[in-house]
Structure formats: structure tokens, C-alpha cells
Amino acid sequence: MPQTKYIFVTGGVTSSLGKGIISASLAKLLQARGYNVTIQKLDPYINVDPGTLNPYEHGECYVTEDGAETDLDLGHYERFLDVPTSQANNVTTGRIYQSVINKERRGDYLGKTVQVIPHITDEIKRMIQLLGSKNKYDIVITEIGGTVGDIESLPYIESVRQLKWELGADNALYIHLTLVPYLAASGELKTKPTQHSVKVLLENGIQPDILVLRTEHELNSDLRRKVALFCNVDLDSVIQSIDVSTIYEVPVLMQKEKLDLTVLRKLKLPVNENIDLESWNKFLIRLKNPKHKVSIALVGKYVELPDAYKSINEAFIHAGAINDCKVDLHLIHSEDIIESNLAEILQGIQGILVAPGFGDRGIEGKILAIKYARENNIPFLGICLGLQCAVVEFARNVLGYDKAHSTEMERKTPYPVIDLMEEQKGISEKGGTMRLGSYACKIKKKSKVYAAYKSELINERHRHRYEFNNTYLDEFEKAGMIATGINPDNNLVEILEIPKHKWFVGVQFHPEYRSTVINPHPIFVDFIKASLE
Ligand code: GLN
Predict the structure, then answer these.
(1) Is 365 helix (H, G, I), strand (E, B) or coil?
(2) Residues classed as catalytic
(3) Mean pLDDT (the chain, rounded)
(4) From its phi and psi, is residue 7 left (phi > 0), alpha (psi between -120 and 50) or beta?
(5) Cβ-defined contacts of 108-112 (< 8 Å, 24+)
(6) pLDDT per residue over 84-109, tens digit each?
(7) Which of 46, 141, 176, 404 is 20 to 30 A from residue 385's alpha carbon, by CA?
(8) Are 508 and 384 in contact, with CB atoms under 8 Å apart?
(9) pLDDT for the residue numbered 428
(10) Any atom of ligand 1 within 6 Å of the Cβ of 358
């Protein structure tokens, strides 16, 4: 069986250069040429996973099918490749140390001093090769978080240095991303930061094979030659990554720069001349030439940071494109909403999404926005906490249970319409203990969601502790809010709808995690369709 090839992606000069997007774009091109590719993210922080991180710190926490709470870059990988990732695709320093310390306690290293080299680096190498080990993938792209030179990323850099040496030069490749800043005063692009960043890599024993230079302006051939010469790389291995209006254009730009061909040549892999990017390009054409526009409000409490709702944002882009429509997303802070400004804030809005979240900050604003959507027949989508707020709103304003609430917000509420799940009751640890990952849901045929999915059995990803309290289900259904999706194994309510309303859907799961360029999520597609009408 052919050996899995490894590509290691590092970044220098600054963070946020788009390593994740470059990795995903390269993977897309290799996939389009017939290779089986996956992408892995190594994160240098000590948290075992980002599940315990506030979205302000690290953006959205992305949940995989197998229930791993992961870095948001995994969302990009899935959206670009349309192939699910798993826990093995995201490894943090915390996870590495946890595993090494567990082994030490078990006595696996008995007699030895446990050290960063070789024990931590061996564990990192093992985690990298885990993905390739079953020969499931032809190519594994491993993105190292952070910036070279950081103390935290040193063990990772050392591990991939060793790994290429062990695997052989044809089986591994280093791609390094840097920034070429533009100095407006002198009108010049500067390569010095790139040279310095490559020097840092060289000090750690790594000679990059390919450099990807992020820039605001075109790099001319003189500048490329200069970088090649000073950084000791081939001229065709100096790749320009110029700013673009949408991340979905980056694969096409990387194709123009022949990044995929250079990679395949260096890894001594055959080149399939037929590159299949047809549906990708069709998506791009629709994305860039919308015929309609729709204004959607995203009501949440982390709206200051666009990355906090990354997957929702992207799901709207996919769903908009397929509806030939530009989605104008209005980020509305739920704490800003009060009864008296509601109509003003939501003026001109054609659809309202209430976001997932935790804790009671801004909760009343969310409930007010839902009331407005329900009473004014404005399409509404509630996701996770968004659904739970819709339940509270309905209980208070339709059933007349004034003090109804979720026990997450009000432990002693007389009407606990949303309550802690039975299996969550004894749990006190916070990390990785929610109801996580993919669960089945059976859908009622006469429903908006059936019209969207066109299927009676679906699987969707979860991340929550609370659920709809089934004691109240009869009352809700008699008053017009119907459970149209139920978990067939444990009867938990997964979807609630108001059939009399134009389009009012609340889902306990997170549809946004499953939306990809090639497969926009049906719930988002129909929500946009309903909002457009
Ligand atoms: N806080 C709610 C719960 O734990 C909702 C979680 C979410 O929106 N992801 O059930």
C-alpha cells in the first residue's frame, strides 16, 4: 500500500494569516485531483480542548460528528472538503500532556525521566501519524497553530522536524506562511519579515519547501526571486496569497499559483490533469452574482466577535448562494434589545435567527426578539439556546406561564419548561461533559423541516446540557407549538415548529456545523427561502 504523505503548515511574522484557509484550499485542490486528504490542527494551548474557552477568547467551538469540541478551523476543513473530521483532527498541548502523564502514572515509562524530548515529541508524532496510520488518507495536512518562535509551539516544530527526517524527504513537506507588509509611505512591499521568519525556522532545523506569502498587493517576479534566493526555496515554491473578498476564492487563487502541482511534484505523486472543481466554481459564480438580497438578524451575545458564530455565518453564505441571494447579516446584541426599541432594531429584517449560547446574559432580549418574530409572522430559526428561548417565550406569552424559564437561568422557576437532562444531573466537571456529537432525529412528515430535509430520519450534532421538558409537551402541542422532530432512542424533543406561522423552527441541535459549500444545509436553505418570500 502506498505510504501516506504528510504536509506540515507553519506560520510566521503574525497570527491570523489564514493558515487554516490555505490548508483547506490546498486540500481542496488535492481532493479535486483525486487524492484522499484530511487536515489536522495542532493547537499549542494547555486546554485539553477549546470546549471550555469563552468564544471571546478563541471564537466558535466547532463540534464534530464523534462529539469532539474542536478549533473552528476544523469547520473550514469540513466546509471546503465536505468530509467529516473527528477528534483525531484536533490535538492540543493539553491533550498531549494529559496522554503522556496518564502513561507515566500507568508505569509505561517506568525507570525513565519523562521529558519534552523524546516523550512529548513522540506523543505529538504519534498523534500526527494516527490519521495516516490506517491508510485511509493519501495525504495528511497538519497545521501548527501559533507563530514560529513562540515558546508554546517549539515541541511541535521539533516533532515535525524529526518526522520528515524519519519519513524521508519525498514523504513530507514543509509549507511556511508569512506576511509581506506594504509600506504605504514608500509604496513598497517588504520581504524582511519573511526572511527573519524563515531564519527562525532554520534555527529549529527546518528548511521550508514552499513559502506562501500573504500580501495586499501583487508580488512581482523580482520580489519573488529575492525571497527564493534569500530563503533558499525554488522560485516556483514562492506562492502569493493575495487578499480576496471571500475565502472560497482562495482554492482558485492557489490553483493559479500552481500550489497543488508544486506540492505533488515535491511529494513525487502523480498528477491527474483533470481537476474537478466544477461544483466549486458554480458555487462561486452564484455567490458573486446574487439576484436578490435578504436581511437577516442574528441575535446573540457574542456579536462583537464575528468568529464566535463562524459556522452560522458560513452556513448563511452557502444557503444564500444556492438561493441566488446575498444574505445581509445584521449582528444584534441581545443585551441591547428592550421592549421599546424592538420594532426599531428589527425594522426591515426579513428573518430572525436566535443563536446558541450559555448563561443568562442577554436572555430577555432574545425572548423579546422571538416574540416579535412569532407575532409578526417573520421567519424564525432558533438554534439550541435559541430553541430553548422560543419555548420559554411560548410558555410565557401563549400558555400564560409568566414565570416560565429554563432551569439553567432560573433554578427555582415554577414552570421549568427547559430542564437539565437526566444524564447531566450528576455531572460536575465542565470539560467534555455535555451531550455532544451526532444523534438521530425522526421527523414528522407534515412539517417545515420535512419539506427541507425530504427525509424522515436525520442525524445532527449536539452541544448542550438542557432539553425541552416533556411534561409540558401536550400543552404546547394543543396551543400550536408542535414537536416535529424527536430522538427515536430517548424521546428528547429535537425540533419544535409553529405550523400556523410562515416559518418558525427551533432546533436543539446545531445544523450550522454540517453546512458545506457543496452541501448547503437544508434548514438554512429553507430559512433563507422563506425569508425571501
Ligand atoms: N445553554 C444551553 C444548554 O446547555 C444551550 C447550549 C447551546 O446553545 N449550545 O442546553
Answers:
(1) helix
(2) 384, 510, 512
(3) 95
(4) beta
(5) none
(6) 999 999 999 999 999 999 999 999 99
(7) 46
(8) yes
(9) 79
(10) yes
Q: Which of 54, 360, 384 to mutate to test the pocket of ligand 1 (most atoms within 8 A of CB)?
A: 384
Q: What's the pTM value of the predicted model, to 2 decimals?
A: 0.95
C-alpha 357 chain-centroid distance: 16
For cell 483532527, the residue is 89
Distances from the Cα of 219 to the Cα of 44, 223, 242, 251, angstroms: 32, 6, 9, 18
Instruction: Give me the sign of the Cα torsion angle 335, 470, 452, 55.
Output: positive
Residue with cell 502523564: 101
SS3 92: strand
Which residue type does 243 have?
D
- Whether 209 and 266 have beta carbons less than 8 Å apart is answered as yes
Strands (E), 334-376: 351-354
**Beta-carbon neighbour count of residue 162 at 10 Å?**
17
* First-residue to last-residue Cα distance in the chain: 54
32, 33, 258, 262, 349 from 273: Cα distances, Å: 10, 7, 12, 13, 47
Question: How many Å apart are CA 254 and CA 62, to the nearest integer?
Answer: 26
Quote the crossing angle between the two packed helices 363-375 and 385-397, to the nearest 10°: 70
Instruction: Tell me, using a 6 A CB cutoff, whether residue 69 lines ligand 1.
Output: no
d(CA 283, CA 278): 9
Q: How far, in Å, is the centroid of ligand 1 from the Cα of 312?
A: 15
463 CB under 6 A from ligand 1? yes
Which class for 496: exposed (0-12), middle (13-18), buried (19 or more C-beta within 10 A)? buried
